[in-house]
Specification:
- The structure holds two protein chains of two kinds.
- Chain A is of the alpha+beta class.
- Chain A contains ten helices and four strands; from the N terminus they run H-H-H-H-H-H-H-E-H-H-E-H-E-E.
- Chain A folds into two domains: 6-116, no CATH class; 135-239, Arc Repressor Mutant, subunit A, CATH 1.10.10.
- In chain A, helix 3 (40-56) packs antiparallel against helix 4 (63-80), helix 8 (147-160) runs antiparallel to helix 10 and helix 9 (176-190) packs across helix 10 (205-220).
- Chain A is elongated.
- Chain A starts with 5 loop residues before the first helix and ends with a strand.
- Residues 1-15 and 135-142 of chain A have low confidence and may be disordered.
- By secondary structure, chain B is of the alpha+beta class.
- Chain B has two domains: 3-80, Orthogonal Bundle (Arc Repressor Mutant, subunit A), CATH 1.10.10; 92-178, Winged helix-like DNA-binding domain superfamily/Winged helix DNA-binding domain (Arc Repressor Mutant, subunit A, Orthogonal Bundle), CATH 1.10.10.
- Chain B contains nine helices and five strands.
- Chain B is elongated, with a radius of gyration of 21 Å.
- Classes of the chains: A alpha+beta, B alpha+beta.
Amino acid sequence: MDTVPVQQDYRVRLEIFEGPLDLLLFLIRKNELDIYDIPISFITEQYISYLAMMRELNVELASEFLVIAATLLEIKARMLIPTPVEQEEDIEDPMQELTNRLLEYQLFKNAGMQMNNLNMLYRDTFIKGIQEDLKSESTSPNIEADVYDLLVAFKSILDRAKDEQIAYMTVERISVAQRINDIMERISLVKSISFDSLLPEDYTKMDVVVTILAVLELLRLRMLRCEQKEPFGTIWLYVHE
Amino acid sequence: MEKDKLIAIIEALIFASDKPLKTRYIEQVMSIVDLGNLTVGTLIEELKGIYTMGNRGIELVEVAEGWQFRTKPGLAEWIKRLNTVKPSKLSMPALETLAIIAYRQPITRAEIEYVRGVDSGAVLKTLIDRRLIKIIGKKELPGRPLVYGTTQEFLEVFSLKDISALPNLDDIKQMSSSETELERNQTELPLPATEPTDEE
């Protein structure tokens, strides 16, 4: 059930770069460059090719990424044009400014990491007053299931479903709305319910289809959440707190 | 009054308080007894020592300019077995934003965003919702922008005595320039053995 579609791959990658400065720092580190002496041509090229890659992957780029790209290009352009000596002193050096920003950003990024190492309340240390909540300890499913898992589970139920008897002339039709009410009624009594048990003993494909639609709708409305203890395991539904 | 009795009183006061208890409140309560040549400060230190030295599960910690009993950090996994509510972790963007505010307060949103290079509205909202930061005023600049600072809860959550107890920024600067510690080490505490064992 390797439901790791391509988009998940870049969603992770996106998270690495919290902004253009973060991306620049990454490129500097990756290429083992000296932050005080950045080869502007090289880094600009790398930076822009990263942006291109991100765009190719349909990652929505914050406009800030483009601002820094423009800054890089400006610096690069300036280096190509000779500056009159007498003016050099007056002009604010954009390269210097960028270096300072990178250093400052790096400093606070590290400071944030240091803070993460402190003893954090309710993570590393506790004060009196927490409430015991043991019931879910042994039985609690702990893997969050996603829609794909849900579909796989339903697929296996569908496969098990008996073929409908052709002879039936009147199919008892259950509406999705009806099913939603059924599910919410049942789950409100027991707090959690396994997927399989939502279906009647001898269910038909129609039952399965209506049930999956009802569950998906409830998940969408955030009235339920679903979890799975292990791959291929039972999917449990919970009332969304 | 005997010293042990005095320490016991302080212990009870701190235990009974639901917030970190400030030394000056303890002093107020104790003002009716003659401490002789002792001070509340030294008595607290002695009490603290008892918990530190002894094989205890809790310790006396100075947080947010007060005293509070807290479980020892090595025992966190056990407490999490009692209560399965997941502690809400702070994301890297939240941590770095919090660091900027903690070290540079009072600070405007624009100043934070200049350092981070990205829009920080959402992160600021998260930090405010979690009561780690708050608006502490307005800056005398065109538009009178709001300025942010850390809260009492911030000190409590990060187990800091006061804001000056933050890791020294110069030390971090040194560390940054050596450029080694940049890997994100999400330190996961080892899970306790399945069978609780007595500590020796």
